[in-house]
Amino acid sequence: MKKLIILGAGTAGTMMLNKLHPVLNKDEWQITIVDQHETHYYQPGFLFIPFGIYTCKDVIKPKRDFFPSGTNVIKSEIEKIEPKENRVILKSGQVLGYDYLIIATGSKIDPTETEGMKDGLWHKNVFDFYTVEGACALANFFKHWEGGKLVINISEMPIKCPVAPLEFAFLADWYFTDRGIRDKVDIHFVTPLPGAFTKPRASDILGDFLSKKNIHLTSDFNIARVDNDNKKIISWDEQKVKFDVLVTIPTNKGDEVIARSGMGDELNFIPTDKHTLMAEGYNNIFVIGDATNLPSSKAGSVAHFQADILFENFMDVIEGLEPRAKFDGHANCFIESGFGKGILIDFNYDTEPLPGKFPLPGVGPFSLLEETKMNHYGKIMFRWMYWNFLLKGVELPIEANMSMAGKRF
Amino acid sequence: MAVKEYAGKMIELDADGNLANLNEWNEDVAKAVAVEEGIEALTERHWAVINYMRKEFSEKGDAPSIRKMTKESGVDTKELYALFPKGPAKKAARIAGLPKPKGCI
Predict the structure, then answer these.
(1) Best residue in A155, A237, A349 to probe B by mutation, most B CBs within 10 Å?
(2) Which of B67, B82, B102 sits opposite A267 (nearest CB)?
(3) What ipTM was reported for this prediction?
(4) CATH class belonging to A111-250
(5) Is the dihedral angle over the CA atoms A310, A315, A320, A325 positive or is it negative?
(6) pTM for the full model?
(7) Nearest-5° angle of CA A153, CA A158, CA A161?
(8) Which mean pLDDT values do the consecutive 10-residue runs of chain A (409 residues) have?
(9) In the CATH scheme, what architecture does the domain A2-106+255-318 have?
């Protein structure tokens, strides 16, 4: 019996399980998936909760609904991976040996990385929306808020879903306009990046959207601490920004188990070959999704494209072949821009987001780097696709590697 | 590709304005680039950071992130921002003759 262990049953781990389970011969393979949580969160939906568009119910389902029957599921914390011994130690002390390991332990926010962030004002005037608790607390706050200065701040890169903070700003503009108090809400977007986004052309276009929507942009701001008494965020070079409500995207880190296992970089992300998706230095460990240190976006769409590549490479490696498929860094993000519209971007390691039509060249129905109603429908439709197709490993009509067809350059 | 004069030497720059060829770098070039970045004089502490970055780059092939710098260079975050205001990783990489850190995605 050969043993495959998948660590983490989030988006990436569940997808891999559903892709590999039907094709690996049951008489030869035992597949085990390990996760400490019972609930699967539709994380792209967190963004909509503060504005009352989704409730908590809309973003949760039991993880077990997405496991194929016959899977060995272990609900446990992971104490340690011992990659040289080819084994995983669980919290209980139980030891699991493996022939192949897929690490999909994700990333999460760590507000304690910034002085004063998780202090007196936490979830009172300082909120995150990267956890269901933070998003719901913020929804309650906004319901009764009568206006003031709303500051959205990214602590440091990389973060999960790098477009989400911008979408939050756009949706806030829409929400307070609808409530008739937009003139009383001053929205500030404060980022450590030199502009609105990570990629230059998209950054210019998205920066224009910010100013059109009367959202102030402060760039090159690297937060050092939160001053709870005076409601200010202060940068390392002593710039100060006052807030009435702070929506923070705290430092994102990989899981502590990666640090305990000595497998991570300074943020617990695992050094991974950017093309083959194999953990650097090991020939039987793959890494997928937010857990990697790859210079691609940390997002579900990216994990989905990686899953196609990882699947091919896994099948090669178990046959004793060299992994042949190459991940190109492909990301595809619907950006909610408010008022029922959205913007779509599609890019990879080498090509920055460009204008054009997607996925059918010249036809669409989606428009790249333009604000359309159809792009918004794409995003709303995506939740249904996520639960029904994506997690279950069903093929979607989008290629894993990025296509230049339909892009203008 | 742009070419610009630093310390009496014509030097090729990449798309980000960083040195295109690592081996065209020397201490005088570093001083000239520093002035352009608003740093009039490079102190011993600046050099500690610059030398650490060059060493990291030659070993790992990528300029280190701020987090890695503060963990390993012996200069804490506060001082790093005082030495290289605004963007220490980006600025120090440029002065050290290295490409812009890939960490920025």
Answers:
(1) A237
(2) B67
(3) 0.79
(4) alpha beta
(5) negative
(6) 0.92
(7) 75
(8) 97 97 96 97 96 94 94 97 98 97 98 97 98 97 97 95 95 97 98 87 90 95 96 94 98 97 96 97 98 94 96 97 96 93 93 91 90 92 90 84 87
(9) 3-Layer(bba) Sandwich (3.50)
